[in-house]
Design a protein that fits this description.
Rossmann fold; 7 helices; 10 strands; about 20% strand; binds adenosine-5'-triphosphate
Length: about 300
């Protein structure tokens, strides 16, 4: 069998990036079809929410989740992953969602990332109600406005660090010179300029996650969704990666001066002090530590 080409790598990563956080999201673990046809997303007209700041026309909240329910399966084996979750994430904040394994963190991030639709309730991202978007609009939102960071890094092993970072730019057909400039800048941002020519297998786990964060930033997303980004790293390396996400949310600005917002799922207690706000998922309900009940 021949060596996989860069092009086949793009096809793969396009799948990964457009499928987002959970690679098996296209079909549920129980064979349940995804949201299409369930009366969920991708049938609508693109309505926006109303609470704009009046100046730039942006909503105050990057993410608005209102009384969202999501159940997998039916009958006695049904799993009520989310049971009336409400949450707002203001622009420019880093919000951490913590909760034990199986508490619904990935389910929540999938809904925000437009990979799945709630059974009921409302999810709005960047001022747009996702239920009002058609499929192509959801794809465009994911490609242009959201960056994903996975626990497993999801880098292409045949590509160098620089090529991995450049994949989203290639998918958007960004001219080579512009692409190379942005890749160099991003690798410098994550402290990996010296490692540009190395492949993932030649990098440590922490370095690989830094490459993945640089890739997530390539298209200047307004929202970063990170699902257990430190889950495969030791405590110290994980803290470094979380500090990087913190710095990105504090310092990075898009071409229009807009900052980055992040929603990060983690069960690592040591990372929580870096968040602007921590919310906790348990039994399908969201709580702010110290508070008794949602909504938040
Ligand atoms: N596609 C699916 N089909 C059926 N059940 C699912 C599906 N996805 C998640 N679940 C169930 O929903 C619940 C919440 O899962 P979810 O993956 O959102 O939790 P999590 O907090 O992200 O867990 P982890 O930290 O282990 O990744 C679990 O009981 C899980 O088994």
């Amino acid at each position: 069998m021949g060596v996989p080409s860069v092009e086949s790598g793009f096809v793969y990563v396009n799948d990964v990036l457009s499928c987002g956080l959970r690679h098996d999201a296209a079909e549920s673990r129980h064979g349940e079809p995804r949201a299409e046809g369930r009366g969920g997303y991708w049938g609508g007209t693109g309505a926006t929410t109303e609470h704009t700041d009046g100046g730039r026309g942006l909503t105050a909240h990057m993410v608005e989740i209102e009384d969202v329910h999501r159940t997998y399966g039916r009958g006695p084996t049904a799993v009520h992953a989310l049971r009336g979750v409400s949450l707002t994430v203001p622009r420019g904040e880093l919000v951490a969602v913590r909760g034990r394994s199986g508490s619904g963190k990935t389910t929540l991030l999938n809904l925000v990332g437009g990979l799945d639709a709630p059974d009921s309730g409302r999810v709005a991202v960047d001022g747009t109600d996702l239920a009002s978007l058609g499929e192509q609009d959801v794809l465009a939102l994911r490609r242009d406005r959201i960056g994903y960071v996975f626990q497993s890094f999801a880098l292409l092993p045949v590509l160098t660090a620089a090529e991995n970072v450049g994949v989203p730019l290639r998918l958007r057909r960004t001219p080579a010179a512009e692409r190379e400039e942005r890749v160099a800048l991003l690798l410098a941002l994550v402290g990996l300029s010296e490692h540009a020519a190395q492949r993932p297998g030649e990098l440590s786990g922490g370095q690989q996650q830094r490459v993945a964060i640089a890739r997530a930033l390539a298209n200047r997303p307004a929202l970063l969704l990170a699902d257990e980004p430190t889950g495969q790293l030791d405590a110290e390396t994980g803290h470094g990666v979380m500090e990087l996400l913190r710095a990105v949310v504090r310092d990075e600005k898009g071409p229009d001066g807009e900052g980055v917002t992040a929603l990060v799922a983690t069960h690592d207690e040591s990372l929580l002090d870096l968040a602007d706000r921590v919310v906790e998922l348990g039994d399908g309900v969201l709580r702010e530590p110290g508070r008794v009940s949602s909504p938040l």
